[in-house]
Amino acid sequence: MDRRSLKLVFIIFILTFSFFCKSKEDHIKEEWKHLSFVKPDGSLLEPKFWSEKKSVLYFGFSHCPDMCPLALTNFGRTSLILGEKSNRFRFIFVTLDPERDSPTTLKNYIQNFPGKNLTALSPNAESLTKLTDLFGIVREKVGDGKNYRIDHSNFIYVLDEDLNTLANFPGGVSANALATKLRELVEHEN
Description:
Elements: H1 3-32, E1 37-38, H2 49-52, E2 54-60, H3 67-82, E3 89-95, H4 103-110, E4 118-123, H5 125-135, E5 139-142, E6 149-152, E7 155-159, E8 165-170, H6 175-189
Helix pairs in contact: 3-6
């Protein structure tokens, strides 16, 4: 294959890859319109919520013994490190266990963490299924009765006001590293 043909194949590959990446983003945006969330006060979340600020999402559950508290503690610390810039973000805990995580439970749970702009949302069963598909979240209920746990993926996702994924991080990312990246995202806009 000569250089010209190789360049043409490469260009076609890049265009095809870009198309499929864009299609995935469009698919997420379309699916997102049909998701339903309950806020800690028991009211339904208005769709405009997502377009008001960038969202920093973490999926977990309130009975989680380790990963979730660490991620939410780092959310709080990140918001404190960012100072006024944290007002450009919403730090959102989405429960993977709406069976136990009632709005009241979530409201009480997130009060245990430092910082500001932290809210918790509970999706209905259909929305939870769509969310786990959209983000590729592994979620498995382990055990029976009241003492079950949810084994789950441990990632943080940053979405812009148009629901485009800007970044993702391992759930155990330090507050300093997360704050640095979020600060870069804000400064990149200006």
